[in-house]
Amino acid sequence: MTTTGPAFCALAPLRFICDEMLRGVGGWLRVAGYDTLLPAQGEADATLLARARQEDRWLITRDRKLMEHAGATAYVVLLESDTLQGNLLELTLRMDIDWLSRAFSRCKRCNNVLLESAEPSPRHGVPPDIIKQRISLLFCPACDQFFWHGSHADRMQRRLAELNRKR
After folding, report:
1. C-alpha dist (Å) from residue 166 to 24, 83, 101, 118, 160
2. What is the distance between the alpha carbons of residues 137 and 62, in angstroms, rounded to a whole number?
3. Nearest to 107 by CA among 159, 53, 36, 57
4. d(Cα 94, Cα 155) in Å, to the nearest integer?
5. Are strands 58-61 and 16-18 parallel, antiparallel or unpaired?
6. Dihedral of CA 62/65/68/71: which sign?
7. Which residue of 79, 86, 106, 152 shows the fewest CB atoms closer than 10 Å?
């Protein structure tokens, strides 16, 4: 495992940009409550690095060419693994990510942190059985996404807990 860059807690709070190779990692960071940007496909390395510097974010990548940019080691986390699980584990160990402290507090789709309670309604795409069960819903006012606790959330919670056990 490469230990590229300085001690990995210099930028606080932990905020991230995941390049296009690691959008899956970015989704899991959002599920864990971390402010994580997922730039548009094809965005230039120099642009990503400039944004990381400007916003004090870690740029997470598998792209070794990013390390050739001046000052990259201060903002870039270069992951080695070629699997999602391997990337998540590597990030856990290298940055001491707490996957459970703010889990499910941020919109996975748009990164908004201001989720609100909502009433279930079929017109918002909420399945009828969820409405019938009167399960609590959260709503993201920024992207109109609804969230509820179902079996998928249980599976995600278990995965986050497993990652935390590796810390």
Report:
1. 19, 17, 15, 35, 10
2. 36
3. 36
4. 24
5. parallel
6. negative
7. 152
Q: Show pLDDT as tens, one digit a residue, over the chain (167 residues).
A: 344 444 455 566 899 999 999 999 999 999 999 999 999 999 999 999 999 999 999 999 999 998 888 888 899 999 999 999 999 999 999 998 999 999 999 999 999 988 888 876 666 677 788 778 877 888 899 998 888 888 889 999 999 999 999 98
Q: Which residue has the tokens 């870039």?
A: 76
* Interacting residues of 33 by C-beta distance below 8 A, sequence separation 6+: 101, 102, 103, 104, 105, 106, 113
H-helix or E-strand spanning residue 94: helix 84-95
Do 91 and 60 meet the contact criterion of CB atoms below 8 Å apart? yes
* Residue whose pair of structure tokens reads 């699997």 in the numeric block: 83
Distance CA 156, CA 29 (A): 12
